[in-house]
Amino acid sequence: MKQRSDCGDTVQYDAGAVAWTWLSGRASAIPYTVLFVAAFANATAERKRAPAVAPFELCYDSRELGSTRLGYAVPQVDLVMEGGGGNWTVFGGNSMVQVDDNTACFGFLEMKEGRYGHGGGEAPAVVIGGFQMENNLLVFDDEKGQLGFSGLLFGRQTTCSNFNFTLAA
């Protein structure tokens, strides 16, 4: 990944700044994506905030967010891949976590000391979490170090639970 665009704010990264948890053998052991969340906070400054619910820092009154078939009507997060590989757009269905009846939190955690990937030295800019991978078809090519992705399946009016993964190709 070379950059991330949250609501029109683009954050550039050096090559190799992203840690794909599958490369380290942890698959989806990290529940929520870890990155720098300031751009989303700025883009949603007009939204009614709710008290933070750990481990999240940005929480909102979910009754005020609006809804689409792709989840809550919130700014999208675009993860732009290196080498013209396209971008992975994260919509409200994978960016907002419903924590109680009236509260939804931005399901990305701030990259800071003590969190996965941050060892006090050079940390990856982004660690993709399992929540953001849900209802996306992902193909990991360990040999080439590549990731293929479908994007959120809600946009195709389906979910991963509709697939039978036990059939041979």
UniProtKB/TrEMBL annotation:
Q: What is an annotated GO biological process for this record, any one?
A: proteolysis
Q: Which InterPro entries match?
A: Aspartic_peptidase_A1, PEPTIDASE_A1, Peptidase_aspartic_dom_sf, TAXi_C
State the source organism's domain of life: Eukaryota
PROSITE patterns hit by this protein: PEPTIDASE_A1 (PS51767)
Q: Which GO molecular function entries does the Swiss-Prot or TrEMBL record give?
A: aspartic-type endopeptidase activity
Pfam families per record = TAXi_C
Q: Where in this chain does the record put each Peptidase A1 domain?
A: 1-150
Family, per the entry? Belongs to the peptidase A1 family.
Record protein name field = Peptidase A1 domain-containing protein
Q: Give the species this sequence originates from.
A: Eleusine coracana subsp. coracana
Q: Which gene encodes it?
A: gb03815
